């Protein structure tokens, strides 16, 4: 680029000329942090007055009950559960799909609800932690977590339990993991290494991992 080349026409108000000389004299970092943002704002390229999206109708089957909602199409499934349906068992941890605290089951498969939009699951079956117990009777996985003290602060526990239930179903269907040694078996053996690998997407900041592994083994009918 010639040092007299410009991204704007001469005479344009607030025109800013980026050349090799300006980069050398100003410094690339300072240029990016100061001058260029001002030039973008001056050209009105950032619109902070974008109108909200029109609501769309969504029919969700959550824990066996049908819910008809009108949602902004950008609403995540997690925010739908927590903010629109008061199902706060699914936790918002990192909100980036890295901690697993928001894990729920969709059509029996585990998913990070913070990374998916509610409108993508219209008419699908969603199971949250609130949907496993039958009255006062806990799900076997919930019972195992209690008996093996698989939680401390409890923040990650709902996601851990949902993920563990989904993980056992995946294993029974013959889905291998990264550490599965024998791919010829119809169902991989659930060793401690298998369980830890399959649950690696769920973080426990209290580090109750050994107890969680033992709880999963009990729920799977394995010796602990």
UniProtKB/TrEMBL annotation:
Protein species of origin: Bradyrhizobium valentinum
TM annotation in the entry: none
One MF term in the entry's GO annotations: 2 iron, 2 sulfur cluster binding
Domain 2Fe-2S ferredoxin-type: 56-132
Keywords: 2Fe-2S, Iron, Iron-sulfur, Metal-binding, Oxidoreductase
InterPro entries the UniProt entry points to: 2Fe-2S-bd, 2Fe-2S-bd_dom_sf, 2Fe-2S_ferredoxin-like_sf, 2Fe-2S_ferredoxin-type, 2Fe2S_fd_BS, Aldehyde_Oxdr_Iron-Sulfur, Beta-grasp_dom_sf
Origin organism lineage: Bacteria, Pseudomonadati, Pseudomonadota, Alphaproteobacteria, Hyphomicrobiales
PANTHER family linked: OXIDOREDUCTASE WITH IRON-SULFUR SUBUNIT, OXIDOREDUCTASE, IRON-SULPHUR BINDING SUBUNIT-RELATED-RELATED
Protein known as: 2Fe-2S ferredoxin-type domain-containing protein
PROSITE patterns linked: 2FE2S_FER_1, 2FE2S_FER_2
